[in-house]
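Supplementary Methods. Inverse-folding protocol.

Structures were first reduced to a discrete structure-token string of length 279. This string, shown here, constituted the complete conditioning input.
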């Protein structure tokens, strides 16, 4: 276990620096074109936003180990997708990109072997990516050593596809215990639960999925959906209607890190029932 903690420390160091690009070679003085200058400004703004979001995650960790919602200060909501990458991930990504909707994906490490090629598209599109364990295991039922392995094996698997060290974690099935929270705090991972469970994993029908999410909408809400883990045709059909319904109600859709930045969570958080979700 001591060796494991040493390795965790090195991972944290790497994760902290993964988002900082190197200084560009050469000078950008008189030869800078208007287009490249605009690109540089956009890149600088994106980096500044990433820094704010990273700081918001760590600030939340200072007073809570898990989050179910923002503090409802703004009409913002976050769509999240679990269990990917998978065969339906490209269709989910295509809808989100076409409708200009940011989202957050919680990845399962074992799925990377077959579907890891979809991960770069999530990263280049600016979506947030989090840890959903290596094998989609119920963390609350595992030993400490096995919980550590579930988290760090996922880090290795997704890191091979360019994913920075993830500082967001979603426990499969909503299963976790005090040991889980101690480990994730050590790893500087904030546990992200949810406000609205779409129950799309049950495949209840497109109308039901849409109604569940839109009728449950409230400022600061985090929505649980899935892009893998089973047939997702209903999720794909429901997603554009959910987006339209939320926008009609004047909600802005953001990633979880952006939600935490704009709408920091309250100290008191309600935990969803464990074991009742397909998360």
């Amino acid at each position: 276990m001591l060796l494991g903690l040493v390795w965790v420390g090195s991972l944290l160091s790497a994760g902290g620096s993964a988002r900082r690009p190197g200084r560009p070679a050469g000078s950008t003085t008189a030869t800078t074109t208007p287009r490249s200058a605009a690109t540089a400004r956009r890149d600088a703004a994106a980096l500044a936003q990433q820094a704010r979001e990273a700081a918001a995650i760590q600030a939340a960790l200072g007073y809570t180990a898990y989050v179910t919602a923002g503090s409802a200060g703004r009409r913002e909501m976050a769509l999240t997708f679990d269990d990917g990458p998978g065969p339906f991930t490209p269709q989910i990504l295509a809808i989100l990109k076409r409708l200009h909707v940011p989202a957050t994906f919680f990845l399962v490490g074992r799925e990377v072997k077959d579907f890891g090629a979809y991960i770069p598209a999530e990263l280049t599109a600016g979506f947030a990516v989090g840890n959903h364990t290596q094998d989609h295991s119920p963390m609350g039922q595992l030993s400490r050593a096995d919980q550590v392995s579930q988290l760090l094996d996922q880090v290795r698997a997704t890191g091979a596809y360019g994913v920075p060290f993830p500082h967001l974690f979603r426990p499969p099935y909503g299963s976790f215990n005090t040991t889980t929270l101690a480990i994730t705090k050590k790893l500087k991972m904030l546990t992200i639960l949810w406000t609205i469970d779409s129950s799309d994993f049950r495949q209840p029908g497109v109308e039901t999925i849409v109604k569940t999410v839109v009728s449950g909408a409230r400022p600061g809400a985090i929505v649980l959906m899935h892009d893998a883990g089973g047939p997702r045709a209903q999720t794909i059909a429901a997603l554009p209607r959910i987006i339209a319904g939320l926008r009609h109600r004047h909600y802005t859709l953001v990633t979880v890190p952006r939600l935490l930045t704009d709408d920091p969570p309250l100290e008191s958080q309600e935990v969803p029932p464990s074991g009742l979700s397909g998360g």
